[in-house]
Amino acid sequence: MEGGFGGFDLYGAHWDAKLKSWGDPINLGAQINTEGDEITPSIYDDMLIFSSNGHVGFGGYDIYGIDYIDGEVIAGTLMHFDYPVNTVLNDFSMMKVDDDSGYLISDRYRVSKDDVFFFERNTEFKINNTIYGMTESRAISNGAISVIG
Predict the structure, then answer these.
(1) How far is CA 47 from the centre of its chain?
(2) pLDDT tens digits, residue range 124-133?
């Protein structure tokens, strides 16, 4: 779309209940969009989760989260999810079910193309490792979740 950052960009539009119509799409800005592609957005609580091949990550598409409150991106809150959410292959999408579980789409096994994985927090994990990729309130520590094929 004209005025974008390049590749596929993410846009937002607001519903006007009085007019019963959508407003014009607005580019979500440089905190999210890059010269690469940003795809598969989802929202969980106050976090916009998306995949990008333009931000610094492990390679290919990686999954990121950014605080998204009242339809606004909060600058400086971009978070890259660590392994096992992201790998050196393409991790296309994450949809959280609740604070402890959700689904990932990835081609990490390459044999079967894109697969859907269920993940859940590893309740036996000892909380003494460094927290990677997220704010403390939304922490997923390395080893703290299990990806289930």
Answers:
(1) 8
(2) 765 544 444 4
What are the C-alpha distances in Å from 30 to residues 1, 10, 67, 101? 15, 10, 14, 29
Cα distance between residue 51 and residue 41, in whole Å: 7
DSSP, residue by residue, 12-81? E--EETTTTEE---EE--TTT--SS-EEEEEEETTEEEEEESSSSSSSSSEEEEEEEETTEE-TT--EE-
What whole-number distance in Å separates Cα of residue 104 and Cα of residue 74? 24
The two tokens of residue 101 are 């579980």
- Alpha carbon distance 30, 112 (integer Å): 34
What's the pLDDT at 144? 58
* pTM of this structure: 0.81
- Write down the pLDDT at residue 125: 67
In three-state secondary structure terms, 137 is helix
94 token code pair:
């994450």
